[in-house]
Write a structure and sequence with these properties.
The complex is a heterodimer of chains A (114) and B (115). Chain A is built from no helices and 11 strands. By secondary structure, chain A is mainly β. Classes of the chains: A mainly beta (114), B mainly beta (115).
Chain lengths: 114, 115
């Protein structure tokens, strides 16, 4: 049972344009969401997060939007740069006995063409 | 510098030969966990620990063991590896519970091949 889903395995965009990566979840207990970026032969690195009490969080070129009613979040990268080419994972966390655990989506490979 | 260090980075072994992957963190985090990454499945949690001597199963614990004798170390043990444990493994550490801008820190990964 995949509680966090990234339905697009890959995304290709031109440098300077917007990249939009999507993520859907099913567990209504999730209250904190994170995006990680992963380059080959490296571990995932934290990009941006959002708490369920917000619907938007911005950090430079990266913005995460959360739509709780649709159980959907998205990551916007504007403008996209070739160095953004990587695998992007969304992850979700809930409280209670799952404190600290992250549930990940399958990942989306982003390719930014010069 | 905040760091999670896991070793080895690459390992090829034979079926049934016990192995240990080490993990160490320097952030004094209570929570540590192991994940495996497989194509099309993302990262799945194997085991986690909320503090010294407190460990529990994650989503895919079969065939794995862990221990937490010190706060900074959380080794992953495969007592009798099988080919279906061929995967990319990540150790992670974080505070217990997430608040604004809290993150989990990941190691660089261990690519394990069991033949």
């Amino acid at each position: 049972d995949q509680q966090v889903k990234q339905n697009s395995p890959s995304l290709s965009v031109q440098e300077g344009r917007i990249s939009i990566l999507n993520c859907d979840y099913t567990n209504s207990m999730f209250d904190y969401f994170l995006w990680y970026k992963k380059y080959p032969a490296e571990g995932p690195t934290f990009l941006i997060s959002i708490s369920s009490i917000k619907d938007k969080n911005e950090d430079g070129r990266f913005t995460v939007f959360l739509n709780k009613s649709a159980k959907h979040l998205s990551l916007h990268i504007v403008p996209s740069q070739p160095g953004d080419s990587a695998v992007y994972f969304c992850a979700a966390s809930s409280g209670g006995t799952s404190y600290g655990k992250l549930t990940f989506g399958q990942g989306t490979i982003l390719t930014v063409h010069p | 510098e905040a760091q999670v260090t896991q070793n080895p980075r690459y390992l090829i072994t034979v079926t049934g030969k016990k192995l240990t992957v080490t993990c160490s963190q320097n952030m004094n985090h209570e929570y540590m966990s192991w994940y495996r990454q497989d194509p099309g499945l993302g990262l799945r949690q194997i085991y986690y620990s909320m503090n010294v001597e407190v460990t529990d199963k994650g989503d895919v614990p079969e065939g794995y063991k862990v221990s937490r004798k010190e706060k900074r170390n959380f080794p992953l043990i495969l007592e009798s590896p099988s080919p279906n444990q061929t995967s990319l493994y990540f150790c992670a550490s974080s505070p217990i519970g997430y608040t604004e801008n809290t993150e989990a820190f990941f190691g660089q990964g261990t690519r394990l091949t069991v033949v």
